[in-house]
């Protein structure tokens, strides 16, 4: 075995890969390949190299390594924004999986604007990232059809891209919303309003369709989609709704941001829930179970959505796959019954078993 003596480097000089190779008694290329994970050497040789690295406290130059390697060990994550707990939790899940694979994550936001998203995607490609996870802005599809993306690993989450070659991870939005609204109908409500964010969002469309199905299935007339863009606007909208000749007796919020707008409006207007109006919504959040009354919600497996998207991406990266047709993974939702709907007990019901589909829009 090669002697481990003389492991000191000259004062003021940084330890190099050549120093590690000399101390371990191997070639410099062997050290480089071991660090990149591509070397096929004996366990004894690998241990000698690792011991030399520790003794010399060698720190690889990651920038130089990335320039030499076809892999940057970095992925990109493009979100609409980070103030929504749903997107923040997805980002945490993606980062956790990336760390397990020895990757870093570059996170940026699009603010739901296609032009900003396209600029950020182009910027990430210049950074030589190994793959991308995107929550697409509305109407983003055209630019992803370009040749620049033919050899880029891309997975979308929460909303699909229309390109069938990209993998997507979604939840069963329609079934979840249908179950939540059906529960309100079981309480005897016949006039139920649906409130959500911009109606051109995939998730809002799917959840509104679930609302319509529940209403028409019960022989009731669905109301028009109501867009809520801010606290102030929602106060005005709710006041207008509740002063109509035939006001709704129940409200269904399309996501957690809409629910927060609604809670603010109902508090400002001093409306008792569920005494004057029943309330349910899509998305659970941290304090939903401690509010008075606790909120009845359709819970989606947020962490698992981000985790699944990251796992799919790393599968494609490791296999070098650019499929002509990707997978669409649909995860189940769960109706969590609390008090805001009028119930005096709490329970949970799961809707939409986990599945993989290529064309079904949920």
UniProtKB/TrEMBL annotation:
Transmembrane segments: none annotated. Residues 15-69 form the HTH lacI-type domain. The keyword rRNA processing does not apply. Residues 16-63 form the HTH cro/C1-type domain. SMART domains: HTH_LACI. One of its GO terms (molecular function) is transcription cis-regulatory region binding. It comes from the Bacteria. Keywords: DNA-binding, Transcription, Transcription regulation. Gene3D superfamilies: 3.40.50.2300, lambda repressor-like DNA-binding domains. This is LacI family transcriptional regulator. It comes from Occallatibacter riparius.
């Amino acid at each position: 075995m090669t002697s481990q003596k003389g492991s000191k480097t000259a004062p003021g000089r940084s330890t190099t890969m050549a120093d590690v190779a000399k101390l371990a008694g191997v070639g410099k290329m062997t050290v480089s390949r071991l660090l990149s994970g591509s070397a096929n050497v004996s366990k004894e040789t690998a241990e000698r190299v690792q011991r030399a690295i520790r003794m010399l406290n060698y720190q690889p130059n990651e920038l130089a390594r990335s320039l030499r390697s076809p892999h940057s060990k970095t992925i990109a994550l493009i979100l609409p924004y980070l103030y929504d707990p749903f997107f923040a939790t997805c980002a945490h899940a993606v980062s956790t999986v990336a760390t397990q694979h020895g990757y870093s994550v570059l996170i940026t936001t699009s603010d739901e604007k296609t032009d900003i998203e396209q600029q950020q995607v182009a910027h990430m490609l210049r950074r030589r990232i190994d793959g991308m996870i995107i929550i697409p802005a509305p109407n983003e599809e055209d630019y992803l059809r370009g040749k620049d993306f033919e050899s880029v690993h891309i997975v979308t989450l929460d909303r699909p891209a229309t390109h069938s070659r990209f993998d997507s991870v979604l939840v069963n939005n329609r079934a979840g919303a249908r179950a939540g609204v059906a529960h309100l109908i079981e309480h005897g409500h016949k006039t139920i309003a649906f409130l959500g964010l911009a109606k051109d969002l995939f998730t809002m469309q799917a959840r509104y369709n679930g609302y319509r199905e529940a209403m028409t299935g019960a022989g009731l007339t669905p109301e028009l989609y109501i867009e809520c863009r801010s606290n102030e606007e929602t106060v005005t909208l709710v006041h207008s709704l509740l002063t109509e000749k035939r006001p709704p007796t129940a409200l269904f919020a399309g996501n957690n941001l809409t629910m927060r707008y609604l809670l603010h409006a109902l508090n400002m207007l001093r409306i008792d829930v569920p005494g004057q109006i029943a309330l349910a919504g899509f998305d659970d959040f941290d304090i939903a179970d401690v509010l008075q009354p606790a909120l009845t919600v359709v819970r989606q497996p947020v962490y698992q959505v981000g985790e699944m998207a990251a796992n799919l991406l790393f599968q494609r990266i490791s296999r070098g796959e650019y499929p002509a047709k990707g997978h669409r993974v649909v995860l189940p939702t769960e109706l969590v019954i609390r008090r805001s709907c009028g119930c005096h007990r709490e329970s949970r019901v799961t809707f939409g078993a986990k599945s993989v589909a290529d064309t079904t829009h949920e």
